[in-house]
Amino acid sequence: LMTSFSPFPEPVYPASSKPLDRNSRGDGLAMHGKDGYVLFGFSESGTDIYQLPDYIANVTVRRHGFPGWEVPDREFLGYSNNDPRYLPLPRQRGQMKGKRGLGRIGYNDAGGGDINCILIDIEVSKFNPSKGFFVSIYSVAESKDNKHAIRIMDKDTFNLIAQTPLIDDYVGGVWWTLHYNSSIRLKFMDIKGIYISAVAFSAA
């Protein structure tokens, strides 16, 4: 993979990403989301479950397509304590053991690449840690052909802050993690479908 062309130097970015985590799957929420999370469509009514850390002020999601901007539909896939891709849901009062479930936003393949995309804006608060924080995205594909790219920008300047990753081969579930110290805009660009189940946070 070429990241620069002579005579131009290798680019330097202010943010850094970790290798994809394909092993922890649903159980990875405890590690990647130890400070907080947003679980998309994680209820039978299709509503999100939020537990944001004090250093995150807000998380917003929009989808762009040919009709313009819209709020993406939520889809609840159900409960399963046997499927390792499913995420542990917060334990409810009176439950001896928490359930595992999976919800999501996204679509199988709308085509259009950069035009059909999902934006996730992450706004930091005044309590932003001095060493920054980690944001992790959990995705479970509908089919083996699903793949998308993520354009990673500073939310205020829209400058690129990290190299664009390709997310593919994620039917079994995958976590992608970024380290940064300010507000972030993530642009999920359709190649052959996009699916996102969770945004998770942990301090650096």
Give structural attributes.
mainly beta, 6-stranded antiparallel sheet
Q: Would you write up a description of this structure?
A:
The strands form three sheets. The chain has a six-stranded antiparallel β-sheet. The protein has a six-stranded antiparallel β-sheet with strand order 5-4-9-14-11-12, with no helix packed on it. Strands 6, 7, 8 and 15 form a four-stranded antiparallel β-sheet that branches. It has 204 residues and is mainly beta. The protein is built from one helix and 16 strands. 2% of the residues lie in helices and 42% in strands. Strand 4 and strand 5 form a beta hairpin.
Please give the number of β-strands: 16
Low-pLDDT residue spans = none
Q: Give the fraction of residues assigned to helices.
A: under 10%
Using the CA coordinates, give the radius of gyration. 17 Å
Q: Characterize the overall form.
A: globular
Largest sheet: 6 strands, antiparallel
